[in-house]
Amino acid sequence: MPNPVLSQTTRSMKLKSYLALTTLVTTSSIVVVVTTFIFYLLQNAHINGIEERGLELARVLAHDPVVIEAVKAKNNHQPFELQRYIEDIRGKTDASFIVVTDQQALRLTHPDVDKIGLHFNGDDIYPSLNQGIDHTNVASGTLGKAIRNFSPITDNNQIIGVVNIGYMYDRSVGILMEQFGKIAGLIAIVYLLGVTITGTFVFKMKRTFLDYEPEIIVHKFREREMILNSIRDGIIAIDNNHCITTMNHSASKMISMGKLGPHDYINQQLSSFSATLSHLVLAESDSFHQGNFNIGKHTYRADIYPIKHNKGIRGHVIVFYANLNQDELEREIVYLKNYAELLRSKTHEYSNKLNVLSGMLQLGNFDKAVDFIQQETDSYQSIIRSIVTSVNDSAIAGLLMAKFNKASDLGVTFTLDEDTCLSSYEKAASEKLVTIIGNLIDNALLAAWQHRNQKPAEIQLYLSDRNQHIIIEVQDSGAGVPDEISDSILEFGVSSKQDDQQNGVGLYLVNQLVDYFHGSIDWERTEQDTTLFSLYLDKQITTRL
After folding, report:
1. Is the CB of residue 444 less than 8 Å from the CB of residue 532?
2. pTM above 0.85, yes or no
3. Where are the alpha helices (DSSP H) in 12-107?
């Protein structure tokens, strides 16, 4: 069975052939147009030069006393001698012929002495003879086609004859073609140089693209992306400056816990996300090596491959995966089982409430059923009204409802500031704001819940984008940030929650996104003995996403 890709490539013109043909046709067209234009300009310049030179000589002879006296003698039927004088002048110039006529357009001079005394051949003499103007014309005479220049001979403001300076057209064209031949030779050299450069470019392109067609290259690129994203191990490619050039989905999920995608890391420094991994690459940059590094409290095994080129190392490919021992795997399984049990308990809790409501309805206690529903929904209605009237972004509004439900389950009071006002944003900006707000609320909920025995657990949220900044403030009743980690709380893996398996990631992601929005983050311990996180984000960045 024939290969469809190969058949398609065979049927259609190959890229290198298409580029070569297109370049050749374009170059040839340009050469033809430029050559024609140059010939046109050269021809006009040559003809204009002949005309100006001929008219200038005609004017000089028309004012020559010898010529004037000879024409006056001819008009008065007196003897004259002018032929030898004019021919001597013609021999010293490049003029093909010089003809002097009297008032009746009869020739006084001519290269062919047999034509002397005969009438001038052509009507183009009469503008000078009758109107006294200088002019030029291309016409055929007794000697053939020529460029003829006329100037009237005057005496006491009376026209007594005409001087005609002629240049044979064939001879002028021959001179022109001789000059053009030199230019055409130069153009031919340039053309051959262009063809040589085209051939070199096509050969270079063939080697660069391994003789693949664009469709096959695009297909292989998409194929590579699918293969990379289907691999469960994390894969990162970096250049010599340690900037990330390629990353698969598994790598981005491991580094950001699924909050950011590969495109958010492209062209970023590897050390910004993992200093230990960056140092591991530098350890033996010119050969394959392996090593361990940490992301938070998780240990990963990395295989580092140098990208070698004939000009040296061009970068590195890093393949890493979780380096879990048996005990860690068991802890992960226990964590998942506990989470599943929590979900089952919540399902059981709501099933019981539905059973209670069903029993009331079956017993006909409709008023009690309504009161039961009202009791369950009063708190929800209040927060729903607050969210709907204050937050126009549906994704953020949905997040706040989910966090309110989580706070209710934990027994933490969740309050949305009544002055909250937030507009709707494009999907890309909205997703990043959801990550920021969600992580801040999760941290505040856990801090407030852990400190519930010392004071009532509560958090308060304030959102605003009325000016040039998006303001996010989250306040909780927790114990606050410990002094020993206050300077590094935003770094990867730093956390006050020692028993949380996913700690040290939330504030790190928040800080990364705050930098993305060209904003700032700050926290303080308030007079009410609460912890307040304040964020200011550049609102203009959201319009560029």
Report:
1. no
2. no
3. 15-62, 65-75, 83-91
